[in-house]
Each structure stands twice: as C-alpha cells, then as structure tokens.
Model the fold of this input.
Amino acid sequence: MKKINVYSLFQIFLITVMGFVWTGCSTKEEIIPDTKPLQIEALPAGNVTASIVTLNAEVQYLNDEVVLDHGFMIMGVNNSNPEKVSLGKTVKAGPINLEYKSKSVFEPDAYYSYYYYIQTEKQLYQSKSISFMVKDFWVDQQSVLPITLGDTLHLTGKFEQLNNYTIVKVSNMYPQRELSIVKRDKEFMDILIPKDLGNHGQTMTILLSKSINGQNSNFGREQSLANIKLLGKVEFNANGPHYFGDDIPIKSYGLSWSVSNFNLIVGNSILSYFNDNDKINLSGLNITQQSIRLGYYNGVDTIIVKQKLELIRPNQDIFETTDIVAHPRQMNTMRFTNLLRYFGSDYYNMKIFVGDSLSSGPVYYGPDSMHFQMPQLTDGSYKVTINTPQYGNIVLKKPIEIKKLKYEIQNKVPYYIGDEVTLKGNFLDNCNYVIKINDYEIFSGAAKNSMLKFKLWNANFGKERFQVGIGGGDYYPVYPDEGETIDVPGIRIDSFSPTSGYAGDIVTITGKGFANMYSMVNVFVGDVPAKVISYNNNSVKIYVPITIRKGPVPIRMMYYIPNGEVVASQKFEAK
Done:
C-alpha cells in the first residue's frame, strides 16, 4: 500500500514538469489572408431567342475579399446602351447562369456582347466579353436558288423580325447596290433581280442590311438571306425575212465569250454561246426549212421565244460555172452572187456534184468565186448540183460537157535538145497545161488553136517519155495518162570554123542539141578542156586551149545524161 503511493507521487511530478516544458515551447497562432486574385470567365450564351438569352459565366477561384456585388454587363449594337444586371453580394465558385429578357426584340443582324463581373472591397474583377447574335427569322429555300436575270426572286419563310427600313443587297459587290423589294409580308418576300446584276453561273448571297442613319453613311449590319445562282438571258431581234449569213441581233444579259452551260437554240440545233457583241451567226447549222424557232437553254430551263426566224433561200441564178466544157479532173470555176449573205461562213461546207459524182481535189474560195476539180468521168453532158447543209440541192441551169484529154505529136521525128515540139489535140483554150519530163516541169501555159508548143530540154538522150498535165499555176497539175514517147538523138556536130588556128583563137562549132551545154556537156580540143564562151541550140563558141599540142587534134563533146561523147568528123589543125 505504501509502495503504490510513492509511484503515484512520482507520476504526478513528471506530468507537472512535462506540462511546464510544453507550455514554455508553444507560440501564439496567427491567420494569414488569401491574396491570390479571383479568376472568372464569361462563357458562350445559350438558348438565344428573339428577346431572351441565357448568359453564362464561371467563377473559377474565390479569395478572401469581401464581395460587394456580382452580375453581368450587357451591351447593345456596337457596345451601345450598356445594361447592368446585378446578382447581389452572394457568390460561390462554379457556374453562373442568368436568363436575361431584353426590353425590346434583338436586332436581326446585330452583334451583342456581355461580360461577368465581381466587385469587391478592393477592386473590380471583369471577364472578357462574349458576343452573340440573334436570328429569329428564316427562309425555307436553303439550297442555291437559280434565278434568271431580270426575274423576281420569291422567298418564303418567317420575316416578322424584319422591318420597313431593312435593305436588300448582294455580297462581295463594289460599289454596293440596293435591290428592290417588290412585295413582302410575314411569310414571303419578292425581290427583283436586275438584268445587269452579274454573269451567268455566278453565285451570290442576298443579304439583309440595316443602314446607319446619317449622310454618307455606309451599310450597317448584314444577315444572309439566300444564296442564288444567276442565269443568263437572251432577247432576240429577228423580225421579218432574214439572210442566213446576216448576223441576228440579240440583247444578252450576263453572257460573255466561252460561257459554260448556256446554249442557243436555232431550229433543231443547239449552239454553244460564243459571243459578246450582241449578235449570233447561223453558220454551222443544217437548215432545211424557212421558219426557224429561236430560244436558249440556261442550264436549268429551256426558253423558246414566240417569234420565228424566216430565212431567205437562194436559187440557181446566183451560181454559174465559167467552163461549160472541161476535162476530167480539171479545175473549174464557180462564180456566184452574195454567197456570204446566203451561206455565211458555211460556204466551205458546200459540195458540188457533176452528175452523181462529187467534185474533189484542192478547192480555193475567193470573194466571188471558188475553184473545184471535175470528177473522173467519161465523155458526156452532166448536170451540176450544189448541195449545202442549209438548203439541200440546187441544180444549175447549164450542164457541163466532159471531154477526155486526147493529143498526139504533130511531127513524129527525132527532136534535139532545144527543138520545139508541137502537140495537137482537143486542148481547151481556157485550161492551163503542164508538160513534164523526168518529173520536172518544162512547160506551163495555155493552148492555142488546139495545139501546144514547147521547147525540149532537160531530157535524156534516147527514147524519152513526157506527160501532159491539166492544171498548174495555182493548182497541182493532174496527169491523166502515162504520156507519149519521143526520140531524143542527143548532140550532133556538123562542122567547126576555122579548122585551124593558134592557142587563144575562137572556134565556132555548129550542130544540134547544144541547149543544155552549160550543165550537161564539156568540150575538148584534143585532150585539153576548152573554155565555152557562148552557146545556143545550134552553135558553141570556144577558146583554143593554151596548152594544146601542135598538129591535128580531134574536137569532141562529152555528155553525162547518159554518159557518152560526140567527135567531129574532121580534126582541128593546131599551130
């Protein structure tokens, strides 16, 4: 029992000492204020209607500052007419929402803004502003609307929010222009699209714009109303009889060269539109009737106008051939009156038939004539028919007589180079003829009195063939047969004078066939080449070579087509 009491006194003593030590080591407790700034953020508006909008914000961090007020500040168009909406002094961290009802309907194409604020005893905290726009009207037509220039655009939808001073204009246009509102009410709006608003195929956005009052003011707030695609338009001016080659006056709207997806309709033909001069041409059409419908396709609709085009058709009197007698494959001339007026630039599509055969070969067109090649026909008389895509067949009054070319050599004797050869046959006075030897033309010209006369040259010695062609000049000649054979003996030396002389003397050699002397023949005195002074068909003048040896030496001529030589029958006496 005594032992227990001692232990209790010691325990009390220890506790007393430890309490004293603990009490001596402790400090006084202090409260430190939170100085970190508040963090707030305005969030996008929600549930936007014509007059009500939900304003959103978030308090991300609160400190120990005493809040005096918090709420939203709402600004009108261009930050005008600010309105403060207080939510009181009590604020907690987290989202803040306010359903705000405007005193008046929001402008249809205006931007509004708001920000969230907290006012403490120390300072004003303000978030970044958030913008929103109210659209309480709509258009039923949401896709791109095709509209012809000059027509009225009809829109349906809800238009109650629009007022009388709302302006209609087009996006991306300078200078700006106002479009006319023809008629409107709460459920529709009719807008006139000007004829000169833009180009075919061009897309535009129709905008509602509320102007700012005041002199020299610009357009104000804008709101997209509808997307449109412009369609070009053509007005024809084709009253009364009309020549095919004359331009058809038109008035076009929104069209230019190479416009796509726009076609003119003329008769049963569809023409691509390639014009910017207020006219169209009928070239390229197969017209078979006088009354021609006119219209156009604008990529969406086909429009046929009431008036028809009345064409003036040509008759046989405007055509005439100059040669009523011709050879097969001969070039002939067709003369005409007002060809371009009747056919325009389509005259090149004209086909000429002699009998039932189509003329062929090169064809040349002039302002009042054209040249065509006769078909390969047997002798006889044939009607001439002109066929055109526009008018079909037109038969000329006068037929053409065909005569196959026939001829023969008048004197069938040997001919030396340079001799004149005469051919007699059924040559025509108004036809050009060409004579060819060795694929080389040696004559081109007309016949006289049914005869052709030409000089023989560029021929090989021996049996040589020549051909008579029809044409030449501006046309490629046509050779109807294999031609005739002529005997070309070559070169002939008859004599020379003087028969003797010195080096440097002039000797004249007479004979036949010297016409090609320069290019085909060399002259030798003995074995020494002699210089040719001059020559013609019947004589050659040469110098006696300086290096000639004295005594009698031969005079000879060497030719190369074919190779050979001719030696004078007597010798020259060199002194």
Remarks:
- Residues 233-311 form one domain.
- The CA atoms of residues 85 and 144 lie 43 Å apart.
